[in-house]
Write a structure and sequence with these properties.
- This protein is of the alpha+beta class.
- The chain has one domain (about 5-130): Nucleoside diphosphate kinase-like domain (Alpha-Beta Plaits), CATH 3.30.70.
- It has seven helices and four strands, in the order βααβααβααβα.
- It has a four-stranded antiparallel beta sheet with strand order 2-3-1-4.
Length: about 130
């Protein structure tokens, strides 16, 4: 069974959208195997976004994800990686289709409500970071 990491980022938690994200996951009949609310440490954020460390937006990513509580979930189901990427929508809400989380709820590219693993390899790495 395929697994992925889904995060409701600080903007989503602040705007009280975690339940909406969870509802959309459950509507697809995926199983949330683990879930926790937490504040991401700077060290965890830097490791999580490590592939972007040489990019100019790295500092902003780290600052944002550590700016408030998040909801982290281990989500499982057939085809969950690809389907959750589709449910989330394009990273830039201006390009995200209506009906997607970002298309319906996100306000800016920097505050786009959710994160989801983009491959089986990143899912394994990210789930290890957030759930051990």
């Amino acid at each position: 069974m395929e697994q992925t990491l889904i995060l409701v980022k600080p903007d989503g938690v602040k705007r009280k959208l975690a339940g909406e994200v969870i509802s959309r996951i459950e509507a697809k009949n995926f199983d949330i195997r683990e879930m926790k609310m937490m504040t991401v440490s700077r060290d965890l954020a830097e490791e999580h976004y490590g592939e972007h460390k040489d990019k100019p937006f790295f500092g902003g990513l780290v600052n944002f994800i550590t700016s408030g509580p998040i909801v982290a979930m281990r989500v499982e189901g057939d085809g969950v990686l690809k389907i959750m990427r589709n449910i989330m929508g394009a990273t830039n809400p201006a390009e995200a289709a209506p009906g997607t989380i970002r298309g319906d709820l996100a306000l800016t590219i920097d505050e786009n409500i959710v994160h989801g693993s983009d491959s089986p390899e990143s899912a394994e790495r990210e789930l290890g970071l957030f759930f051990g």
